[in-house]
Amino acid sequence: MQSTLCILIAEDSPADRMLLATIVGRQGYRVLTAGNGLEAIMIFARERPHMVLMDALMPVMDGFEAARRIKQMAGEELVPIIFLTSLTESEALVQCLEVGGDDFIAKPYNSVILDAKIKAMDRLRRLQATVLEQRDLIARHNEHLLNEQRVAKAVFDKVAHSGCLNAPNIRYLQSPYALFNGDLLLAAFKPSGGMHVLLGDFTGHGLPAAIGAMPLAEVFYSMTAKGYSLAEILREMNAKLKRILPVGVFCCAVMLNLSFQRRVVEVWNGGLPDGYLRRGSSGERIPLRSRHLPLGILDASCFDDRYEIYPMEAGDRIFLLSDGVLEACNLGGESFGEERLLKVFDLNRQPDLLFGEIQQALSDFRGEAQDDVSLIEVSLMEEGQLPHSPLIFSDTGQNSPLDWSISFEFRAETLKRFNPLPYLLQLLLEVQELRVQGSVLYTVLAELYSNALEHGVMGLDSSLKRDAQGFAEYYRERRTRLANLSDGYVRFHLDLRPEGEGGRLSIRVEDSGPGFDVQRMLERHASAEHLSGRGLRLVRQLADCCSWAPDGRSVCVEFSWPARHNPTDRPLVQE
Amino acid sequence: MAITSQPSADGQELTIFIQGRFDFGAHQEFRDAYERVNITPKRYVVDLQGATYLDSSALGMLLLLRDHAGGERAQIRLIHCSPDVRKILSISNFEQLFHIA
Fold first, then answer.
1. Which of A154, A352, A542, B99 is packed most tightly, with the most Cβ within 10 A?
2. Please, is B18 exposed, middle or buried when counting C-beta atoms within 10 Å of its C-beta (0-12, 13-18, 19+)?
3. What is the distance between the alpha carbons of residues B10 and B17, in angstroms, rounded to a whole number?
4. What is the largest CA-CA distance in chain B?
5. pLDDT digit string (tens) for A17-60?
């Protein structure tokens, strides 16, 4: 509530003082009076009047000095001071304003003008008070907001950086403010030892972007750890974002699935600029184009999870970038652009230095470091260089059943659109003793399954994959045949038995194919360095025992382990 | 930034004209351009002739318009796209959602 305006009158002449007090009091204002400047500042300090009518010339302390001190005491608050003066020299009038006075009124007083001036000054005073109040409010809100962002960033950093961005085959550049320009960089090992990598760019900035990033990262990490495929993870991320984000907010993203054993990379790009696969041997540059809408726009039923597959060799590198790299501006307002980026690629002589050269070109171009770029380089690692990272479990169940068997038959319609591996793995990992071998089990199951499906059920010839072109042909053919699959099956027989103090798992995988000449295939794969054939070699290395049925239609692998109270960590990859 | 809209004579089509930078700053104006009209058009046209710049927030706004205009059933044409604008639309594969000319 607006309290009655309180006005201090400082005037040394008792008659004038009384006259003025009467005029002002009659307007309905509360009046305080002082006989000189010193008294005025004392009363001001005690009573904090809203406004001062100040005689210029007074004994003890004149009005100029008193005005100066009152303004000082008032600080940011506006306490209007109107000088009362019989002075006429303009120099003296100017001095009234210079010491901080806001206006002056000449004696003798005209009560109408006096009242109008008081009202005008009161308006100014209240305006200033409002401005100060709003300024403080904004400052408080801003502080609050910054604090929220700090907390959000701290939480987000934990989510976003629990992956393997520090793996030796990754280099990346990401601004410290990445969260607030919507960029997101995720990488995680798969149970099979390969790696998933995601570069995302949310529409918008700040908290709205961070809010979408959290569930995206969670889906990415948890599904990767459970052995889901690129396509399945993309579908889930899209569906989740579509469900939780408001219309108009989405995430442009590139996702990679690198398989170090099979030496291939799968690429899905929805809405980010071209990434590049750069061949180490020839310097050839394969653009990784955006062929999809970003994540979070399409309904699950329309989502397109088709990806491209490329063979990859040691020395090949993949570069992914957010549009901030191409849009980075120099002082002239020119943007960095694709052409400049490609020129850096062309001029590069030592592949190892390329990432640094791109960084250098960017910072040379921009002059000073700006903060909205994300850039990542991923290369292939040799088998065995990477640890098979142990899977993470939330429970530490002590008792697990050890004497059971189970069989599955997955038929054509299911093979087309369902990946049984995460389910089989989950089932096996219920067995406490098998958990230390989770990634090995996954790799073996994955190899056996793809062999049964591709060569057995679909009859694909892996010798197609001898060069890059045949490789592309192989995967095109695989997609076509899978889409048209109408019969056939893959069967899994899992059998667990206690054995002494420990146990033994045998996995038999059977398919509906015509079978193959086991002996010939093993001989061929033993010698040739093909793009194919690595899988079976790997299975034989990883399992304790591995044998084919003579008709080439089923394969059996075994894993055994010693007593449970003395679990030995067997080496994860045996060379 | 100035965004204006103009209904066709028969009230079946609404054309939204974008001038200058089409980014987050245009959010409210863009919404007003199709929400504060007295007609219920069957078709929408977004005229980007005057648009000098378009960012991902603008793409988001186009999705909002699409949602407003009926989602899957929406009929929206984006016309007079400069090569730069076209490139951004094509990287995002927005031709799957809009008619682009």
1. A542
2. buried
3. 18
4. 35
5. 999 999 999 999 999 999 999 999 999 999 999 999 999 888 89
Smallest Cβ–Cβ distance between A291 and the set B59, B67, B93 belongs to B93
Q: For residues A187 and A165, is the Cβ–Cβ distance under 8 A?
A: yes
CA A532-A534-A540 angle, 5° bins: 140
State ipTM.
0.88
By Cβ distance, the residue of A204, A248, A271 closest to B93 is A271
Taking residue B43's Cβ as centre, other Cβ atoms within 10 Å add up to 15
Asked if residue A218 lies in contact with residue A232, where contact means CB atoms within 8 angstroms, the answer is: no
> For residue A316, what is the enclosing H or E element?
none
All residues of chain B having their beta carbon less than 8 Å from the beta carbon of residue A249 are 60
3-state SS record for A450-516: HHHHHHHHCCCCHHHHHCHHHHHHHHHHHHHHHHCCCCCEEEEEEEEEEECCEEEEEEEEEECCCCC
Checking if the pLDDT of A99 tops 90, the result is no
B24 in helix, strand or coil? helix
Could you tell me the CA-to-CA distances from A245 to A73, A298, A346 in Å, in that order?
A: 53, 12, 40
Token pair 């260089």: residue:
A385
pTM over 0.90: no
Q: CA of A358 to nearest chain B CA: how many angstroms apart?
A: 22
CB pair distance less than 8 Å for B56 and A270: no
Q: Where are the alpha helices (DSSP H) in chain B?
A: 27-35, 56-68, 83-91
